[in-house]
Specification:
about 15% strand; 4 domains; Rossmann fold; Arc Repressor Mutant, subunit A; about 600 residues; 6-stranded parallel sheet; globular; 17 strands
């Protein structure tokens, strides 16, 4: 049967070979064995259950947590000529009944269902009559309370499977899962002697970097301007920061959207669709903009704030470069974000044991931000990949080509001011003393009489605060616990004040590399957008960026040549081949 799977891969999906791990997962499923697939975002999990669904008799049930994910998957399957549908709360009663009737008649190979809908009477009646030989559970980590996206509805999946007339093959997939979460997936989903496949968590096409003591507003503005034609996501920790950054970017003329739980369902849906359709390029969002974002051409993901744990970070950062093309993952580290995340954990997690686990995970996230070693190695070893290389040559620590700037004098001024203020005040007040601010409270406290008052008057308060943030991140200063953190000196600062140690800051350049075929690629993207708008589907459903990039480089001019491009199968050749070949012929003929 694996030969049949290989045939479907080429004929329908347009790929010659499976990605690492896919063939082993599919092979176990086709032998009728329950299977757990831990595969990184962009690793091709969906093919692992879609191809078996074409081979198994009857209909495959796909349990998926988010509405947007179902819609995108079904659109993509239809574009490939595979009959599929979804059942969720967005459907009106008439649509729900129509899909149930068509499913009962065997018209769908795949039927996507939200876990909360499994117990609906009408769905229960359907599954008693419909032959189901395969159940695939996406985002399976949601079943574990120790995971990072727990969904109570997932706990009812095993009961649903047990109550089916005959037990189907069951597969569970997720991108990130620690050993504890993997155990929960097997136990709570009731998997029978499952094959466990971990294909490795590495995403070689992603470039990771952590920026400390950087002016975030200025850096992000410059980055978006240099990459104005690319799609990106900026994650913030709170709704207030989402709104504030969204306002700033739109005032600067950027094509930006926003997404957080405080918005109405209609407004969130409108913003999400505009982003999926490439009508807006940048989405500013809290983690409410979550797992269901199946947009393959996101080129960069920026974390404005420190995420709460490595699982959340890697899943969110992994939304860049899902098509295999290069992606950039930037994390801004500011020490006060640790306090924000602690506050959120302590106020959202009631169980003391769970709190302790979450705080431990937060500490590992902070360690990631401080490490001077390979960032990719840190991530892979966190997820249990012990054979991770010591250097990747594709992260901010391994391949940092920024220039070093000596800031020893500034560090001495800041350290001296903190010392003269007896380590009793917060960063803002220290910055105001250094700036020489006329702030009323500062004068009431007599801080305007300190020798360090105004010694950095040529800097803005924001620039001084950025320098202080860097000194905290690098261990020269520290912030106390509590709601109003106080800044204090750390032992390494003593050597700086004595002039025995120098302090450096690395400048971070924003650059854009040109690539072969860029001009043709842009024309192909314009054509893809035109077709996608006409059909009402996201552009990546027509063709992914990686497929367009290969077209732009290879310049195929016949249907046979176009079929050799990865991602071009027979259905898409029939549907889009002529119009893309016309454009490519024009480029070849000049």
């Amino acid at each position: 049967m694996i030969d049949q799977a290989q045939n479907y891969l080429k004929r329908i999906y347009g790929y010659d070979t499976f990605r690492p791990g896919q063939e082993r997962v599919i092979s176990d499923l086709l032998t009728g064995r329950d299977t757990v697939g831990i595969m990184p975002t962009g690793g091709g999990k969906s093919i692992c259950y879609q191809i078996p669904s074409l081979i198994f008799p009857g209909t495959t049930i796909v349990i998926s947590p988010l509405i947007s994910l179902m819609q995108d998957q079904v659109d993509a399957l239809k574009a490939l000529g595979i009959p599929a549908a979804f059942l969720n709360s967005t459907l009106k009663k008439r649509e729900w009944s129509r899909i149930l009737n068509e499913a009962a008649q065997g018209e769908y190979r795949l039927l996507y269902v939200a876990p909360e809908r499994l117990e609906a009477d009408s769905f229960q009646a359907l599954v008693r009559e419909m032959p189901i030989s395969f159940v695939a559970i996406d985002e399976a980590h949601c079943v574990s309370q120790w995971g990072h996206d727990f969904r109570p509805g997932y706990l009812r999946i095993s009961t649903f499977i047990d109550n089916l007339p005959s037990r189907p093959v069951v597969a569970a997939f997720t991108a990130t899962a620690t050993e504890e979460v993997r155990r929960d997936i097997i136990r709570l989903l009731g998997l029978k002697d499952p094959a466990l496949h971990m294909t490795g968590f590495d995403r070689p096409n992603l470039n990771f970097s952590v920026l400390r003591g950087v002016n975030r507003e200025s850096y992000v503005s410059r980055y978006i301007r240099k990459h104005a034609d690319q799609a990106g996501i900026i994650y913030t920790a709170t709704r207030r920061e989402t709104e504030s950054l969204f306002e700033k970017l739109t005032k600067e003329g950027f094509s930006a959207g926003k997404y957080h739980a405080g918005m109405s369902d209609r407004e969130r849906e409108r913003m999400q669709q505009a982003f999926l359709q490439d009508d807006i390029r940048v989405m500013v969002a809290t983690n409410a903009f979550g797992m269901g974002i199946d947009k393959s051409n996101v080129r960069y993901v920026v974390h404005w704030n420190l995420p709460k744990n490595m699982e959340s970070y890697y899943q969110e950062a992994g939304r860049a470069g899902r098509d295999g093309e290069p992606g950039v993952c930037i994390l801004f580290f500011q020490p006060q974000d640790i306090i924000t995340q602690k506050y959120l954990i302590e106020n959202s997690v009631s169980s003391p044991d769970r709190q302790a686990i979450e705080l431990k995970k937060l500490r590992k996230m902070v360690d990631y931000c401080h490490t001077r070693h390979c960032l990719r190695q840190f991530i892979l070893r966190y997820f249990g990949q012990a054979d991770a290389a010591d250097s990747c040559d594709n992260c901010g620590n391994c391949n940092n080509d920024g220039e070093l700037e000596d800031i020893t004098v500034e560090a001495q001024k800041i350290g001296s001011c903190v010392k003269r203020m007896n380590e009793r005040f917060g960063m803002t007040l220290v910055a105001r003393v250094l700036k020489g601010s006329s702030n009323k409270r500062l004068k009431e406290l007599g801080l305007d009489r300190l020798p360090t008052y105004g010694i950095m008057k040529d800097y803005t308060e924001k620039e001084i605060l950025d320098l202080m943030q860097l000194l905290v991140a690098d261990g020269y200063l520290a912030l106390s616990e509590g709601r109003y953190p106080v800044v204090r000196l750390m032992p390494p600062a003593v050597d700086v004040l004595k002039g025995e140690t120098r302090v450096y800051r690395r400048t971070h350049q924003v650059k854009r590399d040109t690539r072969e075929g860029d001009e043709v690629f842009e024309k192909l993207r314009d054509l893809r957008k035109l077709l996608a708008d006409r059909e009402g589907v996201p552009p990546f459903v027509v063709f992914s960026d990686s497929t367009l990039r290969e077209m732009a480089i290879r310049l195929p001019v016949t249907p046979e040549e176009l079929l050799q491009v990865k991602g071009v199968g027979e259905a898409k050749l029939d549907k889009y081949g002529d119009v893309f070949l016309d454009l490519l012929k024009e480029e070849v003929e000049g």
